[in-house]
């Protein structure tokens, strides 16, 4: 059932207040990608088991596949059923129009990322689009997230090594962050400090000193994308410094697929793949989500 504008505003107000609280109390929301109903169930069960507040997120691919209103309804039904604190993030929304659709569907978090769709987008195009979304989000109070340039990697398992010298060129700087936040009025800045979309053959390294400088440069929330494949100690330090949202996708996808492959190989006579997914994949993905929740220090923090 669609939410009323009043209910959407209540949800967004709460999400905003909870992000502030997270920063004050040094914990972060895990923003877990929702590929299908099974991954959603994994996240919800992890949130319930750890009594943790969570975000689930969809990007354009899942929006096209599942539909914004269906995502809202699925999340609301499970939120009610499990009594968990859960919000929805529209991740890497490629255009102002797509972001507006997310705001109107009642998503509490909107990430506008025109440079993902167009890597050559100019600074001015990015700022103009981001400002338009910030302005429209006043309708519901949704929190708007963005970053000033294209963010590397893709949510998949990569076989190539990470070239840190190349990646370092795309790191956030305190000056750029401050200018971008002031120019756009965003609520959340997606920092680039060594985080990279996807899972790589070597663990990721985060520049925590740079993160300290970013934290001091602007008053907004800070998020980390590309959290998969990052050793847990980096997250524990990052939330102490003040990161309040960490996106996780590839680590879940990796376990989903490898568990399903093993399960199918172990059960050659089983043709209900949904049964294998429910019995074996969901608990395996749930375990990944729970371990991230512990790293993000959000266990026990839910206020449903
Ligand atoms: Zn991302």
Kindly list the characteristics that best describe this protein.
304 residues, alpha/beta, TIM Barrel, 8-stranded parallel β-barrel, two-stranded parallel sheet, 16% strand, binds zinc ion
Compute the gyration radius: what is it? Answer: 18 Å
* CATH fold annotation: TIM Barrel
Q: What distance lies between the first and last C-alpha atoms, to the nearest angstrom?
A: 20 Å
Spatial ordering of strands, largest sheet: 1-2-3-4-5-7-9-10
**Count of DSSP H/I helices:** 13
Q: What's the number of structural domains?
A: 1
Structural class: alpha/beta
CATH architecture: Alpha-Beta Barrel
Q: Which strand-content bin applies to the residues? A: 15-25%
Largest sheet, in brief, is: 8 strands, parallel, barrel
Overall mean confidence score, pLDDT: 94
Ligand identities: zinc ion
The CATH superfamily label reads Aldolase class I
Can you characterise this structure?
- It is a single chain.
- With 304 residues, the chain is α/β, with parallel strands linked by helices.
- The protein has a single domain, classed as Aldolase class I (TIM Barrel), CATH 3.20.20.
- The protein is 53% helix and 16% strand.
- It is built from 13 helices and ten strands.
- The protein has helices at 5-25, 37-50, 60-66, 68-82, 96-104, 114-117, 123-136, 164-168, 174-184, 208-217, 232-241, 250-266, 273-295; strands spanning 29-33, 54-58, 86-93, 109-112, 143-146, 153-157, 188-191, 197-199, 221-224, 243-248.
- The strands form two sheets. Strands 1-2-3-4-5-7-9-10 form an eight-stranded parallel beta barrel, surrounded by ten helices.
- Helix 5 links the parallel strand 3 (86-93) and strand 4.
- Helix 2 packs across helix 13 (273-295), helix 5 (96-104) packs parallel to helix 7 (123-136) and helix 12 packs antiparallel against helix 13 (273-295).
- The structure holds zinc ion.
